[in-house]
Amino acid sequence: MDIEILNGVSVQQYLWLTVILFSIGVLGVLSRKNAIIIFMSVELMLNSVNLLLVVFSKMHADTLGQVFVFFSMSVAAAEVAVGLAILVMMYRNTKSINIDILSKIKE
């Protein structure tokens, strides 16, 4: 099996790192009730995919993946701004950032 090496690290090791980071993000989203932790987990998942795009972009010597990562990170920054605005409004109304309280507001 021919494994390509990028900066002293094999592509397979990058793949394992991104799988682990994405799995931690998924577990954070599914198991937590704190909205800030959920947003951080979503960002961790997004950054693991961005890392994978950069690795494959470098492996194929094509900058298109890196350009896509740049736009993805700018969208993520806008997502964080909107998410924090939602959290501030949620805290003003309920004095908590627990996700379970949102279902009680709906009733």
Describe the structure.
With 107 residues, the protein is mainly alpha-helical. It has one domain (5-106): Orthogonal Bundle (Helix Hairpins), CATH 1.10.287.3510. Helices cover 79% and strands 4% of the residues. It contains 4 helices and 2 strands. The chain has helices spanning 11-31, 35-59, 64-94, 99-106, and strands spanning 5-6, 9-10. The chain has a two-stranded antiparallel ribbon with strand order 1-2. Helix 1 packs antiparallel against helix 2 and helix 2 packs antiparallel against helix 3. The longest helix has 31 residues, at 64-94.
Number of helices: 4
Count of β-strands: 2
Q: What is the domain tally?
A: 1
Q: Could you tell me the mean pLDDT?
A: 86
Shape: elongated
Secondary-structure element pattern, one letter each: EEHHHH
Which features does this protein show?
single chain; 107 residues; mainly alpha; Helix Hairpins; two-stranded antiparallel sheet; 4 helices; 4% strand; elongated
Strand and helix layout:
Blueprint: E1 5-6, E2 9-10, H1 11-31, H2 35-59, H3 64-94, H4 99-106
Antiparallel strand pairs: 1-2
Quick summary of this structure?
The chain is mostly helical and 107 residues long. Helices cover 79% and strands 4% of the residues.
